[in-house]
Amino acid sequence: MPSQFSAIGFEASSGEDLAALASKVAERADSIFVDGGEYLRWAPASGEQLWLQLKKSGDAMGMNPHFAGKASMRVAIEARISRDKHTPLDGTFVAWANPKGGADAGGEYPFVFDCPDAAVHAKLALPTLADVQVAAFAQQATLYESEAVYLAAQQAQGMSFPARAFIPSGLVSPSGEPVTPPEPHALISGQVIEAEERHNSITGNPFFWALLDTVGGTFDAIIDPVLLDYQPSAGNILSGWFWLSGRIATKSETPSRGWIKRLVGR
Q1: What is the torsional sign of CA 233, 235, 240, 242?
Q2: Rounded to an integer, what distance in angstroms lies between the CA atom of residue 108 and that of residue 166?
Q3: Tell me, what DSSP letter sits at residue 262?
Q4: How far apart are CA 266 and CA 92, in angstroms?
Q5: CA dist 184 → 38, 97, 115, 164 (Å)
Q6: What distance in Å separates the CA atoms of residue 175 and residue 97, rounded to the nearest whole number?
Q7: Which of 6, 34, 46, 80 is deepest in the core (most CB within 10 A)?
Q8: CA atoms within 13 A on the CB side of 187
Q9: Whether residue 139 is found in the same domain as residue 48
Q10: Domain identity same for 126 and 11
Q11: What is the pTM of this model?
Q12: Containing domain of residue 252, as a range?
């Protein structure tokens, strides 16, 4: 079954598999010390990344995948979200895509993303404006040859979603109720700007990368090849359900509190 790890070429289906993988990459990783522990970042040139988490004692806490690509979004980060399963080095943020005129609300849409190095930003005052590189790990995906083919398929199914669309499914359930706590998931459709097959630098397994243009900005879509019938290429439309992992690149001035900030109360 496709997972965040298989999307970047790893075969890890159990806790034992993940522990073995962590041991394999730890000696090749860079150390990043933060309050509460240490990150070990394994980041080869092929783009796939693993962020291991260590306690101050050196004991392992967790590990998260990411992908470093070409995507960039201007966002207003409003709040941090805590979950019961979070380690001290995990972190999730709520943000607005493409905020207008420096405002912290009223952008293209709100969304949620996990951050593999969240503790690096533990003292970041929120809300704030920032540039974020978001990797969208496909959980389900469908590829269409062109926008015309996509729209024809929509019409045949009695649907009318545009070729560029973003639905923050991690914030609102299908019934319209708020998801509590919000999750880093979204339904995304967009046009492929460029794409290629990559190979995991440890396993050699292939995976697909596509720079996806959609409402609010661009995403680095990462896809396990088992999800698609053929490799993405420029001009295709990619549509699916994704887990979002984002890294905060820069920040600027601090805007005022927004409605999501008030909602989650942090």
Answers
A1: positive
A2: 9
A3: H
A4: 12
A5: 23, 14, 10, 19
A6: 23
A7: 6
A8: 10
A9: no
A10: no
A11: 0.91
A12: 69-266
